[in-house]
Fold GTP 3',8-cyclase.
Amino acid sequence: MEKRTLTDKYGRQLNYLRLSVTDRCNFRCYYCMPEEGMDFAARKDLLSYDELLFLSEIFCDLGVSKIRITGGEPFVRHGIMPFLGELSTLPGLEEITVTTNGTLSFEYIALLKKAGIRKINVSIDSLDRARFFQITRRDNFDSVYSCILRLLSDGFEVKLNCVISAAKNVEDIIPFVELTRDYPLRVRFLEEMPFNGSSEFDVLNWNHRSIYNYIAGNYPEIIRLENEPHSTSENYRIPAYKGSFGIIASFSRTFCGTCNRIRLSATGELRTCLYGPPATNLRDLLRDGATRSEIEDALLLAVSQRAKDGFEAEDRNVKTLKESMSVLGG
């Protein structure tokens, strides 16, 4: 019998799961959630670790080979490390990565190494302490930067994710590129998206072309790199620099044609596209007594109805896009 996989009607196999473990965060970044008034999910409404593990096993049986742990901030959820340890043993799972705001303690770094997790994405939008505070509404720059350096010194593969806003942090673009001179970092500049939990979004903000042109205006030579399969970023480096930088057209959505991602929120909402509505709720199916086979069928049906791209998915979304990124699962 042929193995069933999460393949949509356009022939794209979804083998990369973005798995949110919480909608809570110890930061309040302006592009992710409002400063106050967040209505976080009740703890009973979050998928338990046992439920997350069971669903992850089903995803892997259907061809998922990479899981990225997201939030909110994953490390604010108690018990995350034992869960990651169990997750790492799933058959078929080749890679686990974690996206964090960098307020990891050194204890977690050691435990991550022990679990075999060596790829960490750190969300950091400024290398200037004052702008960092303005963006995150928290005074944690020193601890985040120290964590990045410690991860590098311990041999982790580190990506830095930087959301660019014309009104907030354009001045940080070149300092981030310069950081790749001496460190084997992979910096990613992202277009801002409308998922900030409010009605404020500047659609005329800097796009991927603006970001590239700004960088190109500061360097006489930029080397274009070959992108990895299914990459969301266009990647470059400066000659003789140890690291690289990339630009992600997250709002322009230029990479949709090769997208291999599927998302599960901390409350069980399944999305086949970040811009689209939930396809189903796996938590509800699970708690209503659905069998493993019925959950697999629900996943395959959701993927079979996947939109061609983020624009079609957005057209299907009768809800406003002004939800918080922490609720959607990053």
Observations:
- The chain has one domain: 16-328.
- The mean pLDDT is 93.
